[in-house]
Every structure is written in structure tokens, then in C-alpha cells.
Specification:
- The protein is mainly α.
- It contains eight helices and two strands.
- The protein folds into two domains: 127 residues, no CATH class; 78 residues, no CATH class.
Length: 205
């Protein structure tokens, strides 16, 4: 038995980051999103449940060598084959490291997140509702870790999507400017300029 933080029931009041991190006040509750057993080190959003085989994985040196919390849970999900979920937890680990001022660790977790998302797609599993949303998220992750050429190519591919939602189109074009400026910083959805109503999309070739 152990005492664990309870995540407060709050909703975001401000725009999310381009990598989907929610706005305040929800974003400040990140530290409560993951529980960790002080005895064995098992990390999960809810310690009352563990999938079959997790107990054996938790005892391994590979698991115990990881930072407590998000990274451990992401590793477990990867071992269990839940690649998309593992990618999301790795991305949350990046947010957590940023909050602590650990930018190199945040970049490392973003690299892991994009690798897991790519592996999930290769296995035939989506990590967001539509391909355009997946590409838009991939662009932000790549840009944040300084992979500007890969981000630029992903933008080009995404802008060829048929029936691209106007919001995604605007985000991608905003990202193109950030990539051109070699900007690796955090940006929110509120910063994205909106095109004129009824405007015509220009397809990049």
C-alpha cells in the first residue's frame, strides 16, 4: 500500500501546444498523471491494475535503470506491444522533463515518441484519428528536436492530403515558417494565423 497523488478534475482554459499538450490549468497537473510504487518501482496512471507479465518486466535492470514515472510506463507499454500508447506516454515524459528544465531529456523522449509512433503506423495501428492529424503532430515533434529537413518533408506530404481540414492546413503552414527559422521552441494553437473564410488552398509541389 502507498499514498499516491490524485489528479484534480480540471479542464484546460487556454489553447493547447502544437504537440497537443493541454493548456492551463490542466497542464500544471502533469505531475499527478503518473503513479509510482515506492517498493517495486512500478509506474502507471493507476497502480491498482497491471497487465499480465508486467511484474516480470518491472524486475529487469532495463526497467529499473529508467527515470521513475512516465519513461518507465512507456517502456512497459512498448514491451507489451502497445506502441501508440507508448508513444503518447513518451511524449508526456518529454513535457515532464521540460517542466523540470531538462531539455536534453525532453528531446530524448521526443525522439522515442516519434520512433514509437512510426513503429505503430508500420504495424498498421493509428495514433490519432486521421492521417493529417498524425502528420501535424509528427511535424511538431520533429521540429522540436531540430530535425528540420524531416519536418519540412512531412509538411510537404501532409499538404498533399485530400480534404485537409482548414485548421490542420493553417497549423502546417505556420509550422513551415517555424522550420524555416530553425525554431525549436514551444508554440500554441492560439499563435496560428487563420486564413480568410472561403479562401483557396495553395497546394505545395
Amino acid at each position: 500500500m502507498s499514498e499516491q497523488p490524485a489528479a484534480p478534475s480540471v479542464s484546460p482554459q487556454f489553447a493547447p501546444d502544437l504537440d497537443t499538450r493541454p493548456g492551463e490549468p490542466l497542464r500544471s497537473t502533469l505531475a499527478t498523471w503518473m503513479q509510482s510504487c515506492p517498493s517495486c518501482g512500478y509506474a502507471a496512471p493507476d497502480l491498482s491494475y497491471a497487465a499480465e507479465g508486467v511484474a516480470d518486466w518491472v524486475r529487469t535492470s532495463d526497467y529499473q535503470s529508467l527515470p521513475i514515472g512516465f519513461e518507465r510506463h512507456a517502456w512497459l507499454l512498448e514491451q507489451l506491444g502497445h506502441l501508440a500508447d507508448a508513444g503518447w506516454i513518451a511524449l508526456q515524459a518529454a513535457w515532464n522533463h521540460e517542466d523540470g528544465g531538462h531539455q536534453e531529456d525532453a528531446a530524448r523522449c521526443r525522439r522515442k515518441a516519434i520512433r514509437l509512433f512510426q513503429a505503430s503506423k508500420a504495424a498498421g495501428h493509428d495514433f490519432l484519428d486521421t492521417p493529417s492529424e498524425e502528420l501535424a503532430l509528427a511535424v511538431d515533434i520533429l521540429r522540436r528536436i531540430g530535425e528540420f529537413e524531416a519536418a519540412s518533408e512531412t509538411i510537404r506530404v501532409a499538404l498533399q492530403e485530400e480534404e485537409l481540414p482548414e485548421m490542420i492546413d493553417a497549423v502546417l503552414r505556420f509550422q513551415a515558417g517555424l522550420v524555416q527559422r530553425r525554431d525549436t521552441g514551444r508554440h500554441t494553437l492560439d499563435e496560428v494565423p487563420r486564413g480568410p473564410a472561403g479562401g483557396t488552398r495553395v497546394r505545395l509541389t
